[in-house]
Design a protein that fits this description.
With 300 residues, this protein is α/β, with parallel strands linked by helices. Helices cover 52% and strands 13% of the residues. An eight-stranded mixed sheet has the order 3-2-1-4-5-6-7-8, sandwiched between helices. The longest helix has 25 residues, at 268-292.
Length: 300
Amino acid sequence: MALDQTVKIAFIGGGQMARAMIGGLVAAGHPATNIYVAEPFQAALDSVSSSFPGVHTSTNNNDAVSFNGEGSNVLVLAVKPQVMKGVAEGISVALEEHAPVVVSIAAGIRLVDLSRWMSASFKPDSKQPSIVRVMPNTPALVNEGASGLFADSTTVSDAQKDLAFAVCQSFSKMAYWVEKEVVLDIVTGVSGSGPAYFFYLLEAMENAAVELGMPREVARGLAAQTCLGAGKMALAQLETDPAILRRNVTSPKGTTEAGIKVFDDLGAKKIMQDVVIAATKRADELGDILGSQGNVPEKL
């Protein structure tokens, strides 16, 4: 589904992920004048205005929801999980009035808690907010993002899901709906936190090459391009097991086999699995701490 250019998209939060999403929207042809950003820090708003001329800005979150009185169609909550409760409760009245599709990109914060906070000021007979949880990742900054989405079909219509998905596709090369909300924690562990795993590997490869005598800038360029190229090869052959791709470039008794043997001897595959599991569990913990108990930053 192509994103209708008349759709009014508001952001609360003007940080890196919001800017990546806005950049993707604008690059895809969405008018900057149909984008609104609310952010408490004026310097951040000035940066948004400079990068994306025409985008509306305000330090008041409710201004973004109301979108100059016309009402936003999509509201993206691009704030840290630790401040989500206060933000959601603070826009409750405006949400009831304008009823946008709400897209939350906060790790761990569950729909039941988001809905409770957002509807804090709703009238008893009001419809519950329509919320889509999205877990994007930072490669969206270079238009190479990956996202997982989840919505409760009892509060989000098919048309609203299509709208949220179209927004995500503007900054995500790969986007998938998941059938259970708990799977979003796994998305967090794989692709949400995943870029840092690759940077960790690049750091190690670069340092090893430098110790062996290679100039650092050469080592960094070779390692980064190798990571990018391997990723593109995997994407071009998604039906192929990664183990087969690895074996295809591992000649018997060759250099690659010697390196892979070290991985195997050190249990690197199990370590990587444990890394993903740990990040997934942390996303679940964030939901417990910040959702059920409210904002408890001292426990983070």
